[in-house]
Here is the input.
Amino acid sequence: MIQIENLVKRYGSLVALDHLNLNIEEGEIFGLLGPNGSGKTTAINCLLALLRYDKGDIRIFGKPMKPNSYDIKKDIGVVMQNVAVFDLMSVYENIDYFCGLYVTNKKKRKLLVEEALEFVGLSDYRKMRPKKLSGGLLRRLNIACGIVHKPKLIIMDEPTVAVDPQSRNKILEGIMELNRQGSTIIYTSHYMEEVEQICSRIAIMDKGRAIATGTTEELKKMIKTGEIILIDAISLTPDELARIQELPHVYDVSYTDHKLKIKLSSGKHNLVRVLEYLQSEDIYFGRVLSELPTLNDVFLEITGKELRD
Ligand SMILES: Nc1ncnc2c1ncn2[C@@H]1O[C@H](COP(=O)(O)OP(=O)(O)OP(=O)(O)O)[C@@H](O)[C@H]1O
Here is the structure.
């Protein structure tokens, strides 16, 4: 559905997109995950031909995307990072206005606006002006305006930033529902939990490049870490620490403030082996946690820095 090839965008001497390559298939919820400044919004703006770029090719629905590609644009719904609605119009009028940009038939429009209101849970707020809505409800209105015409492709740029948990869940459920109804979705975020929860495939972005692309499982298999064991309230001698380092699959051990963190590659019985060793040496310990790697670990291992700010 979308092909981005070798996309380069510079702002003066700053390279915001550095030969970005992406391939997005019909039916996906495709996540662009990256820290602030990694180039997600720039990529979206180039994709929508809102921003000129220096090099590269963008094709949507098999056709080259240009600023005047209205035949392509009519099938795209956009929910931008900054809320863009009219303060002097009510909730209903706002959604109706955006719908009217695509749908001229009044009857059909009324039906679509009612559906969008229901969909984002704003039916009871239809007469309210946007200024009276809470931050979360305002975001939901922003979404309703972007999706009301039922586009084939929906692009959402960080729609849950600074949103309360209730609205966030509503938004995430809504995105999955839109996808079930047939829309392909591109979703940018710097929240790895959200992206893991809803996206069928993810491109991890850093410094304007997609440094890894795949399903959550595929991304996690790209790194050495298969399991992380955390043990609290433990006292170890340097010898004992060295023995733990030698256990099978262990490749990194850190020990500070009586907290032990062991990184292991995937393998059966990793935790059992560690616990058996501690027991055999009569070493006391507190809480034990065994965690699977997160997308933050993927980012950390590939870039050497944390995904979180
Ligand atoms: N109009 C602009 N002029 C100059 N530099 C810009 C402009 N827009 C973005 N940049 C820079 O380009 C880089 C990529 O920014 P972009 O907004 O695309 O990142 P992002 O991943 O969307 O970040 P965020 O999550 O903060 O929105 C950043 O270093 C940013 O400072």
